[in-house]
Amino acid sequence: MAEKIIGIDLGTTNSVVAVMIGDEPVVIANQEGSRLTPSVVSWTKEKEILVGDPAKRRAILDPENTVYESKRFIGRKYEEVVEEGKRVSYRVVADEKGDASFDIVNLGRKVRPEEVGAQVLKKLKEAAEAYLGEKISKAVITVPAYFNERQRQATKDAGKLAGLEVLRILNEPTAAALAYGLDKKSDVKILVYDFGGGTFDVSILEGGEGVIEVKATAGDTHLGGANIDERIMEWLIEEFRRETGVDLKRDRTALQRLKEASEQAKKELSFKLETEINLPFITIDPSTNQPLHLQKRLTRARLEEMIRDLVDRTMDIVKKALEDARLRPQEIDDVVLVGGSTRIPLVQQKIRDFFGKEAHKGVNPDEVVAVGAAIQAGVLSGEVKEILLVDVTPLSLGVETYGGVMTVLIPRNTPIPYRKCETFTTASDYQTEVEVHVLQGERPMARDNKSLGKFYLTGIPPAPRGVPKIEVCFDIDVDGILHVTARDTGTGKEQSIRVQASSGLTQEEIEKMLKEAQLHEQEDKKKKELVEAKNQLDQHIYNLEKVLKESRDKIPGDVVSEGEKVLEEAKKVFASSQDVQEVRRVTEKVLETAGKVGGYLYQHTSQKPGEGGDVVEGKPM
Ligand code: AMP
Asked: For labeling, which of 33, 54, 67, 535 is most exposed (least CB within 10 Å)?
């Protein structure tokens, strides 16, 4: 039997592991019997590592040594997250490479976010192994759609540290869409409303014929269930201060208990209309040395009042995503709920009011992303039969070639992963380096497209133009990362870069680029024709010039001077003409003259024109 591959939702607040058993995705409970594992790691003075619930319980008691929400820092440079670092209770510092790390006092060293992620992944891997009774070594892990290449790579590294080969990094909304079954529908648009513990994300996706396309994304990285817990906590602290005059903020143990009780009350109010928060012996009254107790009733209506602005903020973001996708609420076929905070009745009510229908209630919102990851894992292990093409390139990818033209290697809408190689050559004699300029877009001229990056392949042995063969390969992996390699086939020397194929482009920008390409189609076509005609002319000028120079003494003087005259005219046309017909006419003339000269040489020296000279292999760069 094929080895099982697990699907993991490595979340900001909680993580979940799932696996396909037969045709069914199954969420696996952890060692404590819980299907949700808090993404929290804590190190004790004895250097013991606690992961999940036991670690979460230490968050306020030992704030410096307990790392939560480490996902905010994975794959980030310290300078990018200075502000973010101020919001957490542990110390965020830069490591020797300038990457964000955590300074853990109890360990006496820095810990990278990958290591924290790895601890959570290891716990989930072990839970899966205990459940399945077999060793697990492969996984699919999900990340937010907006994660860049470094964040994705760091997530893969976390997997490796946990002893997992990460076969695929899957976008969270795509995973939710898979769990919903979007790949099996045609022409269906869904909106994924992901309201978790610390973040809020909206994605609009369209499915059809096995392809899932992300149409728009929007979000707020600091809006989640924790904000709601804080509101309840603040209310409790204020009420307690008013009643007893004691400030609970000064008592860490009290704060930890308040935090847990606030979250608990919030969750209960999703199912009940009223709840009681009961914290006996919450603190000691400093003036009387007597223990104090906290007891409060909280109603759902009161909670809703406290958090209405937070829920309204999520709806503003929904509106923005719809605007970006140019869709009206009625055009969304289903709203898929992700994240524990979507259980709040006020959230569901706002969605119902806005879209005019109930949100889709198929999969448990805490588990939907992990279930999607398990389905993808099942496809990779061969357990799930359908072929799922989950992503396509949104725009064409190519390189700049001679004359400023974009030469496409991978056309838009190509299902990924995909690999394509093409051979190019040099544009001038004795050129020892070529610039590989990677472009994205639909316009024929390089400058009208988006530049994704450039690099140089150096050390090409000097040779006439057109002789060196440079093989350029574009390789988009399943995670949407584009690897570009250029290799001089003569020497085997190579250079490469990696770029995010959809690097920083929003759906809006992609659409704008497509529109512009359409708008300029005719004029672009003309420009490209002219450049191509000129490139040809340039090549023939070069050939004629070379033959005249090398064989001057073997050709009668009048033929030489005729050749020179033609060359002079051709160079002028090459330099300044904007008329493709004129360029073609003069090219004919150059060819004719070359034929005359060549024919003459052939008769006298039995060397055919061009022989021993140029072989043009592909386009010059
Ligand atoms: P996630 O990041 O998706 O794991 O979501 C976790 C967040 O959902 C936490 O803030 C939880 O407190 C919250 N949550 C879980 N269950 C409920 C519930 N029944 N009602 C309200 N919030 C909940």
From this structure: 33
Which residues are marked as active site? 9, 71, 172, 194
| 619 assigned to some structural domain | no
DSSP class of residue 28 equals P
Cα–Cα distance between 571 and 569 in angstroms, integer?
A: 5
Residue 79: Cβ-neighbour burial (10 angstroms; 0-12, 13-18, 19+):
exposed
pLDDT averaged per 10 residues in sequence order, the chain, 621 residues: 91 97 94 96 96 93 94 93 90 95 96 97 98 97 84 93 94 92 86 94 85 81 93 97 94 90 97 96 94 96 97 95 91 96 97 96 92 94 70 83 93 80 93 93 91 91 93 86 91 85 58 81 89 90 90 87 94 93 94 86 51 57 85
Instruction: Tell me how long the chain is.
Output: 621
State the closest ligand 1 atom to the C-alpha of 340, by its place in the atom list counted from 1.
Answer: 8
The number of beta carbons lying within 10 Å of the beta carbon of residue 184 is 14
Q: Which residues line ligand 1 (CB under 6 A)?
A: 11, 13-14, 36, 196-197, 224-226, 263, 266-267, 270, 339-341, 343-344, 366
Q: Name the residue among 78, 76, 75 with its Cα closest to residue 156.
A: 75
- State the CATH number of the domain containing residue 277: 3.90.640.10
Q: Which helix (H) or strand (E) holds 361?
A: none
**Ligand 1 center to 509 CA (angstroms):** 34
The answer to whether position 41 is within a domain reads yes
Same domain, 328 and 468: no
Tokens at 120, concatenated: 């959570």
